[in-house]
Amino acid sequence: MAHSKLSTKHLLGIKYITADDINLIFQTAENFKDVINRPIKKVPSLRDVTIANLFFENSTRTRISFELAEKRLSADVVNFSAASSSVKKGETLLDTVNNILAMKVDMVVMRHPAPGAHHFLSQNISANIINAGDGTHEHPTQALLDAFSMREQLGDLKGKKIVIVGDVMHSRVALSNIICLTKLGAKVKVCGPPTLIPKHILSLGVEVEYSIKKALEWCDVANILRIQLERMDIKYIPSLREYSMYYGVNKKLVDSLNKKIVIMHPGPINRGVEISSDVADSDQAIILDQVENGVAVRMAVLYLLAGNRSN
């Protein structure tokens, strides 16, 4: 029997939701995808709900995607960018949130550099909390939209082979993706230079492959991560040129495979580094589908959590 309710009041990470929750989010997102492809793209589902977007770290795509999802659901939206706020004047996270709650906010979508900030909030305030990225820890809605996009291409993900390529060490997307895909029964490998593969990764039930060609020969889908130079306080790779030579996904490499694979990238893309333009713009890449699906999946998460507000 399909469940009609999430098992949780918050989306703190994929770790804390079940496979049933994930499938319910996907079913709901399919319905919303129909909505956003109609001439009139709005539904009144969250008309009386106020949502605060708190971004303590810069993010253009995730913030715009959430904002669009909220507006499509007719919610009232308050945007709060910490870069230009009292946080710089030393205000604590709890002060900030209490001020926002005084404005009678029902849901908080937050990106924060500290892993665990969302947990802290969920224990201290009554609003639903959605994690839009915490440090290098988790980014649950990205993993959901990635898995949803894979499912559109491949059907049921059970037994499908997914490789996550690149800067796994600094990627919250990689961690959420691994947890989400293994919950859905997919087989997952990671591929990248040894310096960018964290030591504990095997404990998550994934395999490590250091040869990009072997990884691509094996997989049905390659999800290619951005090299996160802004998170690298020491040099993990000799140079971007060298990374691109050994691990860049380019047309020659993709054409040399004995099959067609699906190419994904959570964005923003460093063109010519982890992926070449002719691959990113090819018909094997579903990067723009991921963006469209991001709005539908975030609408589904907001809608389902709003249904759990009275918990």
Please, could you describe this protein's structure?
- The protein has a five-stranded parallel β-sheet with strand order 7-6-5-8-9.
- It has 311 residues and is of the alpha/beta class.
- The protein folds into two domains: 14-138 and 291-306, Aspartate/ornithine carbamoyltransferase (Rossmann fold, 3-Layer(aba) Sandwich), CATH 3.40.50; 140-289, Rossmann fold.
- The radius of gyration is 19 Å and the shape is globular.
- The protein has eleven helices and nine strands.
- It has helices at 19-36, 61-72, 93-102, 117-124, 140-154, 172-183, 212-218, 240-247, 251-255, 277-280, 287-306; strands at 50-55, 76-81, 107-112, 128-134, 161-165, 187-191, 207-209, 221-224, 262-264.
- The longest helix is centred in the C-terminal third of the chain and has 20 residues, at 287-306.
Strand content: 5-15%
Kindly state the mean pLDDT as a whole number?
A: 91
Distance between the termini: 22 Å
Instruction: Give the biggest beta sheet.
Output: 5 strands, parallel
Question: Which regions have little confidence, pLDDT < 50, spanning 5+ residues?
Answer: none
Name of the CATH architecture of the largest domain = 3-Layer(aba) Sandwich
**What form results from the Cα inertia axes?**
globular
CATH class membership of the largest domain: Alpha Beta
Task: Give the tally of β-strands.
Answer: 9
Number of continuous helical runs: 11
Number of domains: 2
- What pattern of helices and strands is seen along the backbone? HEHEHEHEHEHEEHEHHEHH
Q: Name the CATH superfamily classification of the largest domain.
A: Aspartate/ornithine carbamoyltransferase
CATH topology of the largest domain: Rossmann fold
The structure class reads: alpha/beta
In which order are the strands of the major sheet placed? 7-6-5-8-9
How helical, in percent, are the residues? 25-40%
